[in-house]
Amino acid sequence: NLRTQVNKNKSGDSDDSSDDNSPLAGVASARRLLRRELERWRELQHSIMLGIDFPEVDGNEVDDSALPDLDEDEGEEATAGSPEEEPLALPSDFSASERRDMGLEALAVFERRIRLGHAYDLIEAVKQSINHQGAFLVDKRKHARGQKANTRSQRQVSGAAARTRSLANLYNYNRDRLLALSDGEPTDILK
Fold first, then answer.
1. Verdict on whether the full-model pTM lies above 0.85
2. Region at 51 (left for phi over 0; alpha for psi -120 to 50; beta for the rest)
């Protein structure tokens, strides 16, 4: 489990036989996992979205200079590129006429439902984050005395503000995708 892994990393123990415990090794591992998940997603997508030419991603255009040295037996998975930048080709990525031509209206309805629920969740998360930010600020004004306490409190306030901005950016992205799905006509949550 995650706690066990964190404790092992703190103590220096590791299940890996590799000597490289750098954060870049974790990134490479996460990219390989994401690449496998994307391959499964593409298989499912090909079975549902017939007749669509999906983007081909070339894993050979990878800059391996920033990645740790990997074993030879890891094969092509190690140089799978940047899967986090690969387009997913969801119905919101297409215009209304393209969705109609490709027969993606039903999938667009499902994506819209999911994104609408996600939008409500994100609005609630932004509200909660703003409340946390306010509570940290009140706590700072009330209890923080001296440079050390003020710095610690300001770090909490700044962290909460950064989280609020991050959640707001996620909401804005989700809203843009909802607008793409609703042909540019804002509805209840989009106004």
1. no
2. left
Tokens standing for residue 26: 């974790």
Tell me the two tokens of residue 176: 């843009």
Reported as a single tens digit per residue, the pLDDT across 128-177 is 999 999 998 998 888 888 888 888 889 999 999 999 999 999 999 999 99
DSSP code, position 83 = G
Structure confidence by residue, pLDDT tens digits, 175-191: 999 988 887 666 655 55
Q: Which residues of 75-101 are buried (b: 16+ CB within 10 A; e: fewer)?
A: eeebbbbebeebeebbbbebebeebee
For residues 158 and 173, what is the distance between their CA atoms, to the nearest angstrom?
A: 23
Residue type, 103: G
**Count of CA atoms in the C-beta half-sphere (13 A) of 137:** 9
Location of structure tokens 């909660």: 128
Query: Which structure tokens are listed for 118?
Result: 């996600």
From the list 86, 82, 91, the residue with the least C-alpha distance to 52 is 91
Rounded-to-integer distance, Cα 173 and Cα 101, Å: 25
Beta-carbon-side half-sphere exposure of residue 168 (alpha carbons within 13 Å): 9
